[in-house]
Amino acid sequence: MTHTITVIRGDGIGPEIMDATLHVLDAMQLGLSYEFVDAGLVALEKHGELLPAATLESIRRNRIALKSPLTTPVGEGFSSINVELRKRFDLYANVRPAQSFPNTRSRFPSGVDLITVRENTEGAYIGEGQTLSEDGETATLTQKVTRRGSERIVRYAFDLARRIGRKKVTVVHKANILKSTSGLFLRTAREVAQAYPDIQVEEMIVDACCMKLVMQPEKFDVIVTTNLFGDIISDLCAGLVGGLGLAPGVNIGTEAAIFEAVHGSAPDIAGKGIANPCALLLAAGQMLDHLGQVEQAARLRRAIVATLEARDSLTPDLGGEGTTLAFAKAIASRL
């Protein structure tokens, strides 16, 4: 069945890793069609705005987008294009898997297979109510957590665990100190967990969680937490398995889902053809899962693993001398 997806080629290395990803997807003959739109610096140069109305309408119409990294200009426009997209489409869940891969520069080449589910629309990370006193000596920030926001992200995490056969959900919080905001999140999580007797529930304070992730990441399965904690933890988890070049993610809501490489646009290596496309390829795998093409997603991940095992055309960050497109072609040859 043909499905049209919105494609945002992005800034910096974005077009290179997107071209590589689409090369692999085309080799899979999945019946996908692409609607290309602009965002970020490219959109600003071509259309005079970071998020053109045509781009937003395309995402709204197709409900699925595959996005390369975007650059938000300093001193103008939104504080973050990604945050703006989450607000526009109420993409309340950020889902980032971290999995061990062979032949990567990682302290854990095996044993890590976890998913961070992060609340995406509220909490300290949103930056609401920021003020600076007239003398410049005192800064304040409002942190808002709601029962609705907490309930839907925790329920999403438990539903995800049940759907894909995960056995445990770890609720990460700081309710011992942040008794109002983090306390509300934890109390709501406990209420939601009662509806999932088949899933083991674990509660963990965020600092202890970070320590245990570094020491025993194999003990974790699904982590659910608030926005700022999830931002930090998911990057920590990427570090466990070789860095952001292997870190995919999806921002998902009831009306749309945006799949992305979570790393930046890396302008220092743009145009050199050496960027690692794995993060965006793995995000494409998440997209296929979302579209119900679960076996095709597994097929893609197997091809990536096989290419890493063979050290075939790996990019420099993985210890090879291959180019972005050569790496993609090596993956495609194993499909």
Automatic annotation (TrEMBL):
Query: InterPro entries of this UniProt entry?
Result: IsoCit/isopropylmalate_DH_CS (IPR019818), IsoPropMal-DH-like_dom (IPR024084)
Q: Which PROSITE patterns match?
A: IDH_IMDH (PS00470)
Keyword terms = Oxidoreductase
Entry keyword annotation includes Oxidoreductase: yes
Any one Pfam family here would be: Iso_dh
- Report the GO molecular function annotations: isocitrate dehydrogenase (NAD+) activity; magnesium ion binding; NAD binding
Record's keyword annotation contains ATP-binding: no
Biological process (GO) annotations held by this record are: isocitrate metabolic process; tricarboxylic acid cycle
Q: Which residues form the Isopropylmalate dehydrogenase-like domain?
A: 4-331
According to its UniProt record, which protein family does this protein belong to? Belongs to the isocitrate and isopropylmalate dehydrogenases family.
Q: What is the name of this protein?
A: Isocitrate dehydrogenase
Q: Which organism is it from?
A: Vulcaniibacterium thermophilum
